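User: Could you check the structure of this?
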Amino acid sequence: MRNRHAKILATIGPASRAPDTLRLLHDVGVDAFRLNFSHGSHEDHAASVKAIRAVQEATGNPICIVADMQGPKLRCGSFEDGKIELRYGETIDIRQGREPGKAGLVIMPHQELMDAMTEGTILKFDDGKLQVTVLSNDGITAKARVDVPGVLSERKGINVVNTVLPMSAMTDKDRIDITFALTLDVDYIALSFVQTSQDVRDARKIIGDKAGIIVKIEKPSAVEDLDSILIMADAAMVARGDLGVELPLEEVPVVQRRIIRKCRALGKPVIVATHMLESMIDAPTPTRAEASDVATAIYQGADAVMLSAETAVGRHPATAVAIMDRIISAAEKDPIFWEYFEATPLPYETTAEDAISGAVRGIAKKLDAKAVLGYTLTGSTVQRISRERPPCRIIGLTPKMRTASRLALSWGVTPVVTPDPDDFDDMIGRISGFAKDELGLQVGDTVMISAGFPLGNPGTTNTLNISKIT
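Assistant: Sure, the predicted structure tokens are below.
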């Protein structure tokens, strides 16, 4: 049992792929693992999934696995000399093609980008290190002014600001990778560079209900269409890397808070990612600013915080996880931490499920309840309880391992795979034994039990029982 509510998502890479290392990372705090399909082979990812599921079986703890797609990453072409220099104020030509570029000429392999560029379109190269503004585009050659100069090396990434590109969030590579990831029974597919809700619909046609869909919010167009995108998705990620390139930097914290609030209102997990403890790629400790950044995401109510290169290629993957665990725990022990959730109103539907989940936080506070245990088949009821952010443990009891491993990403939820009880008396008896043996609760402690009767039918949550441990 973790002594914290927010979860840790860690990226697998060369520094963490070994089975022993994956077990160590789980032991020191990882609740979910990310497979980055921008790197590594299918064989690498299959081996990682096998190792993670072995850890899951050995520990008895359901572990969430996220397969993160590369998406339509735009890149410039090659150059005759391997690079060119962009000088401030000069006008350069941009064309679509495959031949090498040269001084004053950038070649791009993306016809969609060429078609979308109009006067005023801003292009940023190499993660925002260089910037040009399009002056004109006749369909063959676009002319652009250099606003932020520097050396542009070949095949560096391109970010397009203030323009929606006529391209899907899924490439042919992504479709192949998604199909393969589904054969591994991953829990979530993360879609990169989502622009509109149609991107989520297109992915759902392939994924169906075989995995949840995480939308990575990293495009300004996605921020503008945020409500409809989040309704279609199962979870979201605040992908601050590309988002920070395409949005003014000062807007990223505002957007982060907005996404977290909207996801919580919908009862869907939200992950804050990118640059969280980045200095720990090399250093054994993070900066104070990085520690504050992680804590800010926790205070805002994020379900999970993510480590990227820190665990994928960093020198201290287990230490990075352990320090993130300490930062989360410290923030959650702050009495002010809970005041934010009490002051933040949530929308409610006129359902028994929402009436029950909405009562949980108040009852937990008034009766000093130690835990709320929810029986669930799909996980929806437990996620609705999770969005309430009750000041007690949330135990998701389910007969389905798939449901349990998905719930491992949700705030405060400890998923447990267990058969449904035979009847109400059997349920109460099981809860008392479990609470004492697994949760360390004492006789006389108060717990809440959420369930639907008749048992075993999804969508029938209609009971909230308040019991004392006997």
